[in-house]
Amino acid sequence: MNSLRIKPKEYEGFAIRKAVVGPIATNVYFLINTATKEALIADPGAEGPLLVQYLKTNGYTPAAILLTHGHEDHIQAVQDLKDAFGCPVLCHEAEAELLADPAMNCSAFEGTRCSVSADRLLKEGEEVTLGGMTFRVLHTPGHTAGSCCYYFPAYELLISGDTLFHGSYGRTDLPTGSDAQMLASIRRLLSELPGDTIVYPGHMDRTYIAFEQRFNPLAEFV
Q: Which domains, ranges and CATH numbers included, belong to the chain?
């Protein structure tokens, strides 16, 4: 695998922080408005009490929980955060059924049955501002039918969930997954987004769109 060194970006009034949780090392992201201390939480997959404590210790107020998809390793801490802060849960409209079904979201097979109901269902291309931060919803099916990415143009970053990884992409053999849709979604991300967009995936390290345009296994099909 080719090495990649990502230069940190400095943002005025904004910061992003990561926690790695659960048995398969899921990335949870805190997108923070440093002026108001409001936060968006992307994919709180496990260890809910620790995530709650982190937010409280730092004085952050969650404005919303953003789910890239509904697999159990990305949703197990949702209820802990809702109970502590009352923040709404957002996901793409095509993911609602999988979120609610422990068999489809794979929690039934892990012995940790989990069912989540979204408070707001998002549509492809929708632009949303919460906590003073604006993102665009990109529907990127393939890993699941309702997988989506959240693109923050002001900060040149993408929360990609299990769609796009560093030098790789998400598996397609779980409920509602599709090889053809994954190829189309990767093609879309690599062709539509600026090359200097930093990608924050659901597992493993960060990457750049420009890096993936050269080295991702599906790049040759773009």
A: 14-216 (3.60.15.10)
